[in-house]
Every structure is written in structure tokens, then in C-alpha cells.
Amino acid sequence: MLLYQVIRNHIQSLVAEGRLQAGSKLSSERALQEQFNSTRITVREALARLESEGVIFSQKRRGWFVTPDKLKWHPARKVNFNALAQKQGFVPSTEVIEIQSPSNTHQVSHDYFDSKPVYKLTRARYLDGRGILIEEIYCLADRFEGLEQQPLNGSITQVMEHSYQVNVSHEKCEISVTVLPDRAAELLEKNSGAPCLKVQRARYDEHQALVDYNIEFWLHDAIEMIIEGK
Amino acid sequence: MLLYQVIRNHIQSLVAEGRLQAGSKLSSERALQEQFNSTRITVREALARLESEGVIFSQKRRGWFVTPDKLKWHPARKVNFNALAQKQGFVPSTEVIEIQSPSNTHQVSHDYFDSKPVYKLTRARYLDGRGILIEEIYCLADRFEGLEQQPLNGSITQVMEHSYQVNVSHEKCEISVTVLPDRAAELLEKNSGAPCLKVQRARYDEHQALVDYNIEFWLHDAIEMIIEGK
DNA sequence: CAGTGGTCTAGACCACGAT
DNA sequence: TCGTGGTCTAGACCACTGG
């Protein structure tokens, strides 16, 4: 058996047997290196595999930790992130990174909003203090005038319903696997190049008019999407 | 700028400018090492990042290649894989790996089919000769008696409709990012530990009875899922 | 300030692919 | 058989975290 597989299996079984709890810190790379009479390159190979599998994760220069359970996410349902996360036993929080004044210079504005001015809202979401999602939300400036004065750390869908009488009736969703853009990696304190699930959603009202366009970058090990179709 | 980022950017721009066509082979790792006065470790760091991004891919010991376009896949629609792939300019093919005689010893049989005997069909699917998907299909043995005599390299949905008068009316789909199981990696000639998109689908007929249960492992750089909801 | 992870050097051996 | 990628050794320096 390959050495890095031995190290991998060892850590994996520690986690499986519960001897390493979710969120707890692993031994340092150099300690593992000594424990297995190996080198850091090989140890890091094992750690990288475990990270791909979603068993462990790293935060920049802080160390390696056991990955908590994944959030089960229903993108098509208009469920509140906070409520859903709480129901699954997490402590959720949301941080508004920035809201950009109406502008028509975004690519998204050109592609989806007929080059009209749009708001761009950037948020980060956390579970138990761990950053797991960066999202960008674009919506028409004149339809959602004064959006920057609304509470933006909760459900945008609810704000649209209650303050603007706009209802989302259906959506089109594109899902792919890629890496975090550098800016998102920074915000989530991940190394550049961390894999992620990218979800792009165009949401429409009952008149087939585009309500908003969202780009979400989820840590690949933090989410399981559930979709009920047809 | 970090050295591996320099190498990464160099290859990325070669691809972006079209000087490296989709499917074509990159220089060998040792050639790149010399070109950048570096070491193979660093070169491989750059290649690994590009692979995560979906720009290049490797096949076991064969080398590194430029990733072709992604297949746009609509899991909820009853579209034929072959037809969809052809419409997007690919040459698709399907290989039956094995069909297991009815058995009630699978975990899936226990969890989803009330421990009744099920068929297990394993298939691989290819685009332009590149293996991109391993899928396992489970269905009730007594409902699909003689399934092993049906043509199994096309659409299973169509076989179910035409030969068994069973129609899929809705489905529940779970999507997550993980790594290929070793068996799947072998079949697709990928290194163990290659990232993938795992799609589990339970499909039901109009009487809410489970028709089949599928587990699909897609190469992470080969698919973009498109879902229209609500 | 000590220890950690992130990056990098300069080699090596082996199994497998292409030829 | 030769070159390739896959694995591995034995170090090094730096930036940053945490005490």
C-alpha cells in the first residue's frame, strides 16, 4: 500500500471512529511526518486527498480540521438559509461584504438585465463560525430602489416579497465544480485554488421577468444540494 | 508572484488564446520544469491547480490534456444522453460494465427497495472517447424482469417506457462534490482521488412508487448541470 | 517568538504507456 | 526500450498565527 494511502486511511479511521470530532484540529504536518517516518510532501499528499474527499479542511496557515456535516440545501425552495441551518443543528450567520450602488458596468448587467443599472450585493455565510459561502446577488436598481437601506443579512427573497411585493415563481439554475475566485478564497480564509460548487441562479417572477441573478460559491465540502423535480 | 502561479498562468493563457486546442497534450512535466528552471513538485502544483479549475485533465500515466467543453446536462428532463451530447457537438458512447443478477444484498436494496431483489446495472459513458461518467442503476427485479436481455447502452428511461410501460413522473436528486471511488477511477482511467460530482437520483412513477435509484459519478470538469425549478 | 503551513529545491526509484 | 507520470526522500526559507 502506498505510504500516503496509509496516512490517509489512518486519519480517516480516526475520524470515522469518532476519535477526532468534527471541527477539531489534526496533529501538525511535521508531527505526522515523524509519526510515519516520512516527509512533509507525502503527508501533504495524504491531507490533500482527504480534503478532496471532504473529510478534513484547512484554513489559511491555521491548520487542518475535521469537516463538520454538510448543509442539506434545497435551492428551488424559498427557504430561509438561517432557518434551514438551524433546523439542521448549525449556528448560522450572514455578513454583508458590500453593496455596490447601482451601476450598469457589470458583465451580468449586460448579459441579463439589458444593460440597465443593477445593485450588486456581496455576502458571506457562516455555519458555526466557519465561512462556507460567498454569494453575489444582482438585481435591477429601479425595481428595488433603496435596497441598501433594507436589512440585508437575512433572506433577500423575503425582503423582495415584503418590501417590494415581488415574488419569485421559478428559476433556472446552473451548477458546476470549479475553484474559488481569489477574492472569495480570501474572504473565506481558504487557500487560493480551493475547490467549490458554483451555483448560478436566474430567478423570475410570475410574468417571466427576471427578478435577480445570483452567483454562489459554496465550499465543496460544506453543501449537499437536494432537488425535487418535475 | 508565486512560481507555480506563473506556470499556471502561462498554460492558462496558452489555452485561452487557442494555442493549445481542446484535447491536445501538454508538454511533459520535465519539459515544463526545464522551461521554468524549476522542479517537478512545483510544476505539478501548477498542474494540480489547473486540473481543479477544469482547464486541464490527466489520464493515468498518459499525460496532461486540455479539457474539452462541458456537457450541459438537464437531469430532470427525460432527455437521452446520446441525443443531448450529439446536439452539443460530442460523439457519445455508452459501455455496459456489468449487470448483476437480481440480488437483495445491496445496501441500496435495503434502504430504498424494502430489501426486495434488485438489478444493479453499471455503465460508463464517454464523450469523444473520454470516459466522463460511471453510473449505477438499481431497479426492482420483479418489475423489470428480463432487463438483462434489453438493449442497455441507450436510454434506460426509454426501455422502461417501451418494454415495461413504466413512466417516470418525478424524482429526487442529491448532488455533492467528492472523489471517485477507486473502482470508478479505474474504469475512467483516472488517478484515485480524482474529484467528481456525485448525483444520486430516486425516480418515481405517477403512483409515487420508486422506479429506480441511480448513483452517478461525473468527472468534475465534464459536466454543468442545468435545473429549472418550481 | 516559536511553531505552523505555504512554497520551493534537487534529486531518486518504479510501473506503466507508447513505440 | 525509453520516456512518462506517480511516488517519495531530505532538506530549505518565508509569512503568518497564536501564545
From TrEMBL, chains A, B:
Domain of life from the UniProt record: Bacteria
- Annotated HTH gntR-type domain residues: 1-69
List UniProt keywords, sorted A-Z: DNA-binding, Transcription, Transcription regulation
Q: Which PROSITE patterns match?
A: HTH_GNTR
**Alphabetized InterPro entries for the sequence:** Bact_HTH_transcr_reg, Chorismate_lyase_/UTRA_dom_sf, Tscrpt_reg_HTH_GntR, UTRA, WH-like_DNA-bd_sf, WH_DNA-bd_sf
List the Pfam families hit by this protein, alphabetically: GntR (PF00392), UTRA (PF07702)
Which PANTHER family has this protein been placed in?
MANNOSYL-D-GLYCERATE TRANSPORT/METABOLISM SYSTEM REPRESSOR MNGR-RELATED (PTHR44846), MANNOSYL-D-GLYCERATE TRANSPORT_METABOLISM SYSTEM REPRESSOR MNGR-RELATED (PTHR44846:SF1)
This chain's protein is named HTH gntR-type domain-containing protein
Native source species: Pseudoalteromonas aurantia 208
